[in-house]
């Protein structure tokens, strides 16, 4: 059955009504926004920076490009893209959550990056842009939170210019059993505890761990991208498949 | 991943250099948003360097079109110490160069002009003796990179002189044409001025 015809959806390991997921996800990110960056560094031992670096290297973003950093949160990718596109380009930091956008805006302003960045609240499922208007879209650690992923992928495809590309950076499935055991222990025991200690919020970090496990694996996501129209789709595993970088083009 | 970590560290080093020598940024101004890719064949890795006007970005695993692309083995790259071998290397297909040669020249020029008061900066961390030793090492690296810049400078002329066994990239051709146009214009201006002087 197609995702969009179902009445319920996953929220971590829980099953909730489709209409409810968005606001439940919103609660999670409202509550973690202020501590988001520091938790990212702690939880991944800083490795998320390397994953993001790889995404930027594969983005092909150049001077003059119009780039959408979707589910961009606190704007790590936006900060780099803003420099790469220069004065003649533009980066849009799009997120459904205004708390995250606000943290992002303050951070980027402190970095002295302003002139070519726009902050827009938006839902990935219905992107507020005309057809064929964006050169590169990235969505980093965002897609798994989106209720209707197929609709989101179609929406991204629609707004991309021909020749444009989409990059999806997301937690995925590792094929190493040992790594997977360590990773499970880490995410279900240590992570919520760290979330409690640092952000005083173990529930949100439990959701994080569960939502990662519910996210489609590499091959499934690849075929979802193809269903949405993307061509030359490919992915590369990082850190043993804990994270995968998917890429697809619109022609 | 380890590569990515090392590249991140190297990028940070470059950006530190940018802070320590203000003239470095000035010398890079013309290069803003130009991408230089260096493919090291033995590692099957392509590294790319770009200056964004604010900072350097350095990538590994680079698969995009760069403004200038050099491909060679490590051994070949170190052979470049001797400028005369470059065309031979290209002909033997030991070295490939695509795109705008000026980009490579300009980057290497800026790097070799890098002027940081290292002993001063380093002695803060290492003490005077340690700084001294490190400096000697760096001097030798620097002189090597200066050599590389000389090599690249002479390459343009050599490429033309060497019976054009090496194909000219369309970008180079376009640039050449632009230069020629400019020269023509200047000659015309000069002619006019001489005529004016003669008329007096
Ligand atoms: C884990 S954060 C990732 C932030 C940033 N991209 C990064 O890598 O650090 C996920 C973000 O997705 C946003 N998000 C969740 N559902 C969304 C949707 N339907 N549309 C747009 N953004 C959404 C959240 O508000 C949150 O800021």
UniProtKB/TrEMBL annotation, chain A:
It catalyses: a 2-methoxy-6-(all-trans-polyprenyl)benzene-1,4-diol + S-adenosyl-L-methionine = a 5-methoxy-2-methyl-3-(all-trans-polyprenyl)benzene-1,4-diol + S-adenosyl-L-homocysteine + H(+); a 2-demethylmenaquinol + S-adenosyl-L-methionine = a menaquinol + S-adenosyl-L-homocysteine + H(+). S-adenosyl-L-methionine binds at residues 74, 95, 123-124. One of its GO terms (biological process) is menaquinone biosynthetic process. Pathway: Cofactor biosynthesis; ubiquinone biosynthesis; Quinol/quinone metabolism; menaquinone biosynthesis; menaquinol from 1,4-dihydroxy-2-naphthoate: step 2/2. InterPro entries: SAM-dependent_MTases_sf (IPR029063), UbiE/COQ5_MeTrFase (IPR004033), UbiE/COQ5_MeTrFase_CS (IPR023576). It is an enzyme of class 2 (transferase). PROSITE patterns: SAM_MT_UBIE, UBIE_1. Keywords: Menaquinone biosynthesis, Methyltransferase, S-adenosyl-L-methionine, Transferase, Ubiquinone biosynthesis. The keyword Methyltransferase applies. Its EC number is 2.1.1.163, 2.1.1.201. It comes from the Bacteria. Pfam families: Ubie_methyltran (PF01209). SUPFAM superfamilies: S-adenosyl-L-methionine-dependent methyltransferases. One of its GO terms (molecular function) is 2-methoxy-6-polyprenyl-1,4-benzoquinol methyltransferase activity. Signal peptide: none annotated. Belongs to the class I-like SAM-binding methyltransferase superfamily. MenG/UbiE family. PANTHER family: 2-METHOXY-6-POLYPRENYL-1,4-BENZOQUINOL METHYLASE, MITOCHONDRIAL, METHYLTRANSFERASE. HAMAP family: MenG_UbiE_methyltr. Methyltransferase required for the conversion of demethylmenaquinol (DMKH2) to menaquinol (MKH2) and the conversion of 2-polyprenyl-6-methoxy-1,4-benzoquinol (DDMQH2) to 2-polyprenyl-3-methyl-6-methoxy-1,4-benzoquinol (DMQH2). This is Ubiquinone/menaquinone biosynthesis C-methyltransferase UbiE.
UniProtKB/TrEMBL annotation, chain B:
GO terms for cellular component: cytoplasm. Residues 14-110 form the SCP2 domain. Pfam families: SCP2. Pathway: Cofactor biosynthesis; ubiquinone biosynthesis. InterPro entries: SCP2_sterol-bd_dom, UbiJ. It is found in: Cytoplasm. This is Ubiquinone biosynthesis accessory factor UbiJ. It comes from Pseudoalteromonas caenipelagi. The gene is ubiJ.
